[in-house]
Design goal:
A four-stranded antiparallel beta sheet has the order 1-2-3-6. Helix content is 28%, strand content 18%. It is globular. Helix 1 packs across helix 2, helix 5 crosses helix 6 and helix 6 packs antiparallel against helix 7. It has seven helices and eight strands. By secondary structure, the protein is of the alpha+beta class.
Amino acid sequence: GHGISNRLIAASSSTSCLGNGEQMGEGWSDYIGLMLTQRPGDTGAQRRGVGTYLEFQPNDGSGIRPAPYSTSFAVNDYTYQDVISGAGGTGARALSIPHGVGFVWSSAMWDMTWNLIAAHGFSPDIYNAEGTAGNQIALNLYATGLKLTACTPGFVSGRDGILAADRLLYPDPARPGEGMHYASIWRAFAGRGVGEGASQGSTATPNDGTASFVLPGGVATETTADGGVASLTVAGPNPFVVATTMALSVDRTQDVRVEVLDLLGRSVAVLHDGPVASGAAVAVRVSAVGLPSGVYVVRAAGESFTVSERVTVVR
């Protein structure tokens, strides 16, 4: 894995591109290991440990990372905000440099992969670069994204490399300047805090960035990791003074946590934490009580999806 990333990053053969504090080399290596050991019938929500044999654990243990890889936030809820606040620190949410930093990056890539598999299916033929299955597309985005990512990268430049790879390899004729998998990529990265408006600061350190869970306009309906659909839309006024309402719908019953985040990724209110039944949309009330004027993100995280919408409080 390190051979691939050191060789391809910024289309360079130099290892000096991955020596900075926020570089994601460990994550790129985890990711290729996860991709090459996928099996038909796997799901995004299942636990995938890395290095579990070192800890005398079964394959679904946490291994040598803070949590197993999983698209379920009940299993792995680490985001870019944890990198900013915990990289190199101590405590329960501390992340080591570079291993913990890379783990969060690979978590976003793993979410993206399962978004693509949900939309395009899975193929065990991992060496077919012309294939149209979701995992084949993800591997192409991984390899080409490395070449298009800036030297000494951070999370934002890595995300932008993936988006650039999508534009190059899979241009969308209906949306000039965007790739065919624009929404799947943005949903994954925004769900892990590398959304629109995220900043990596100086990539020499992982602690000076700004997380964002905001999706670009028009990206609000999630194709879930198990092939279903979930949506979160603003059904009331936005901007609002007193309160507004979100409409949440899922196509299979599951536990969902809905919370309000500020633009630093901090949770300021929990609106729902429990089961949501399939079928009709559920109304979730967002109150302005206790919230200063500004932009907030309402995020719904289920067992197989994460979707966000932006709301604005005015006084």
